[in-house]
Amino acid sequence: MTQQHEDGVKEVKVDFNTECPMCSASIAFDPSSGKLTCPYCDYEAEIATPEKEAQRTAQEMDFKATDRRESYDWGVDKKTLVCEECGAESIYDALQVADTCPYCGSHQVMEASTIDTLAPNGVCTFNVTEKEAGSNFQKWIKGRLFTPSAAKKSAKPEAFSGVYIPYWTFDSNTMSHYTAAYGITRIVEDREGNTRTEIDWYRTSGVYQRFVDDELVLASKRYDGELLRKVEPYNTTDNKVYKPDYLSGFLAERYSIGLDEGWGIAQRQIHTTLESEITQRILRQYGASQVANLQFSTTHDQITYKYLMLPMWLSSFRYKEKVYQFMVNGQTGKVGGRAPISPIRVTIAVILALIAIYVIYVFTQS
After folding, report:
1. Helix (H/G/I), strand (E/B), else coil: 46
2. What residues form DSSP beta bridges with 297?
3. What are the record keywords, sorted (predicted)?
4. Which of these, 121, 219, 280, 285, is most buried using a 10 Å CB contact count?
């Protein structure tokens, strides 16, 4: 239940009991077992699974039938979250949907939605534990070719934060009408026996149909998109119907990029994919060597979406007074981040590359 106060602060009642029935400590979702566990007395509880298969995973939602479509600015609204264990009140950004009580450590999960925003309908749970994320980071940092050895030896991740990040996925039946020019290369020989390459150009047009399945769009403006792309993809088909149980013990965030804005991003991503696929189709169809002046328009039909919460481990490490951030995909364990670069190593690599090019040139000339 959400109440709106005169000062614009929303009071949110925690709707999920995270108290351990054995020792009264806070229980949390355990990625290794898929259960709710207590870190103190080892109590475990199964998370109820719907009997019907169709109710176990997030269902596609009708894009056109959805009312709440706008984006939300992070931090514009605030809410008060009351801890049921110690009674402490904490102020959070309105889009933050899970957190830990800073006073007693209780893992709290607020209700799934407010009056203004959509509720997530699916969650890809953490499969990778915090320990595994740390191990993957160590392997990743050791594999950085241009990172100084001292950084590789000393780099240790700071405290990990397990975060559920909001994403949209979109499905669409696409039909693209296109026109283009394609070139076929031929070798021409003159009277003296010299050869040259010429390209004959032809016009073509056609229709390209494709079903787009789970086009992934980040629904937050808070995270580094470049870093996130390094740890993608996610297996979005491996999801469960949203329950607050899965968020217990983790941070999470509601979307700040709304449905319409997300669909606009998805359309641009789909356009880029279709451009590449239509080009490849023309090259194969005519045995062409080049495609030019490709123009096409695409219609989308039967558009559906899902609002998923996807798992991510966030951390950083410090080297020579500078902080380097990195992420670990909570589903696959893939690592992406930034690491210090040694100018000496880069210089040596460039010199070796130039030597190799010179040796190849000399060998081919001789």
Report:
1. coil
2. 177
3. Membrane, Transmembrane, Transmembrane helix
4. 219
